[in-house]
Specification:
The chain is mainly α and 157 residues long.
Length: 157
């Protein structure tokens, strides 16, 4: 893969990367940093990509690892606990504010699977590769996410 092809694929996945990182980090500056870090790591490790058709899942997997690293570093420094913006509703006009808030209320592992599947459209097999977890775990997280979202909306009705 040459530089222009890499750039084209990164730009094609830019919005997805940003939404995924915002769903995990919930802070615009941190999300942008994670995306930049992931792109840099992907560029330096381009030789480890086995098949170009898996570029999107490979890059998303790198991004999630960058996000997790940032979260670990933040926990070491301090637990600020500030109110953070709702990424899903701001970046995706098809998601209402109420749905975005409900997604943000989900536990991180479940939220990540739900966002990847229902917002970004990744199939279960790709999520399995991205998160490096068994397919059954992906399915159970999606199922639990649906249950939790259903409970949230039943309470608000």
């Amino acid at each position: 893969m040459n530089n222009s092809e890499f750039e084209r694929l990164v730009l094609k996945n830019e919005q997805t990367l940003y939404r995924v990182s915002m769903s995990i980090l919930k802070n615009e500056a941190d999300a942008q940093d994670a995306v930049h870090d992931a792109v840099l790591i992907a560029y330096t490790r381009l030789g480890s990509l086995k098949k170009e058709e898996y570029f999107s899942t490979w890059l998303t997997s790198i991004l999630i690892n960058c996000c997790k690293k940032q979260l670990r570093m933040k926990k070491r420094c301090a637990d600020i606990g500030e109110a953070l913006p709702d990424a899903a509703s701001r970046d995706n006009p098809y998601i209402s504010v109420e749905i975005g808030e409900a997604l943000n209320a989900l536990p991180e592992k479940i939220r990540t699977a739900v966002i990847l599947h229902y917002v970004e459209g990744y199939p279960v097999k790709d999520i399995k590769r991205i998160l490096k977890i068994p397919e059954g775990t992906v399915k159970s997280r999606l199922s639990r996410g649906r249950e939790l979202l259903k409970e949230q909306f039943d309470l608000k009705a």
